[in-house]
Amino acid sequence: MASTITLKRRISSISNTRQITKAMELVSASKLRKAQAYAARSRDYQDMAYNLLRRLSAMNEIDQTPLFRKRTVKNRLYIIITSNTGLAGAYNANALKLLTQGLQEDQSKKIKSHVITVGSKGAQFIRRLHDVELTAVYPPFGDEPTANDIRPILNTIVDKYADEEIDDVRVIYTVFKSNLVQVATNLQLLPAPLPADEEPDVPISNFEPDAETVVNEVTTRLIEAQVWQAVLESMASEHAMRMMATKNATDNANDLISDYTLELNTARQAAITQELAEITGGAEALNA
């Protein structure tokens, strides 16, 4: 059994850690409320943008439009959204696992993989891999991202796809379902997919001034909406997972403190019992 001094030091150390994790839990909970509202406001717009992309991709008039031209995939670009720090549960691991699956499929099909990472955790992972090009690394966009934050990523996507440097673009992010459920998702951005088991809606056929001008102007904004929503969903998911991770850490600290307190009380009782036995034995020896 550990000494009372050692047990007191352990309890004090764990108490300090509990204060830190509790503070982190409260901060994450506060940020989560804002991020959740932020993501919910634009979710409907993101769904409409995705549906419009699918409808545009089903039109014959845009077959020659650079951003919708489908070709054999020889180079694929992934945009993966991770965090800069840990203590976020399985937030980074889930997204990186999904990326790894995609990279393995690309390798088996002789497809060259390119990756743009948001957050240092993703960059650290990619730098350890062979035959994967790390195109760019961006820091997390903070609690209130703006359109200017994601515009460099958007420009890279559009330019590389239009110049045929990339044949397929996907974004890997974490969809916020609830405080307890977050799902890592691999979303195809370009070319816009059309589910095989679903008939396209009646396509938009009347354009002003012409189809090419409208598609070129609108498509970039629609892709921007997809990336923007991916950032917001990931931000809310990160705060939710960090809140749960720090809550679990706080609960574990409470359990450890209870266990060590019980052990400390047991050690104290044993010491008192031993002292009483020594006093009683000494008194009996004097009386003998």
Overall description:
This protein has 288 residues and is an alpha/beta fold. The chain folds into two domains: 4-22 and 244-287, Helix Hairpins, CATH 1.10.287; 43-243, 3-Layer(aba) Sandwich (Pyruvate Kinase, Chain: A, domain 1). Helices cover 60% and strands 14% of the residues. The chain contains five helices and five strands, in the order αβαβαβαββα. It has a five-stranded mixed β-sheet, sandwiched between helices. The radius of gyration is 28 Å and the shape is elongated.
- Measured between the Cα atoms of the first and last residue, the distance is 35 Å
Portion in beta strands: 5-15%
How many discrete structural domains? 2
| C-alpha geometry | elongated
Low-confidence stretches: none
For the biggest β-sheet, the strand order reads 3-2-1-4-5
| Assigned CATH superfamily of the largest domain | ATP synthase, F1 complex, gamma subunit
Rg to the nearest angstrom?
Answer: 28 Å
* Topology, number of strands: 5
Order of helices and strands: HEHEHEHEEH
In terms of structural class, how would the helical and strand content be classed? alpha/beta
- In round numbers, the mean pLDDT is 83
Q: CATH class of the largest domain, please?
A: Alpha Beta
Treating each run of at least 4 consecutive H or I residues as one helix, how many helices?
5
Share of helical residues: 55-70%
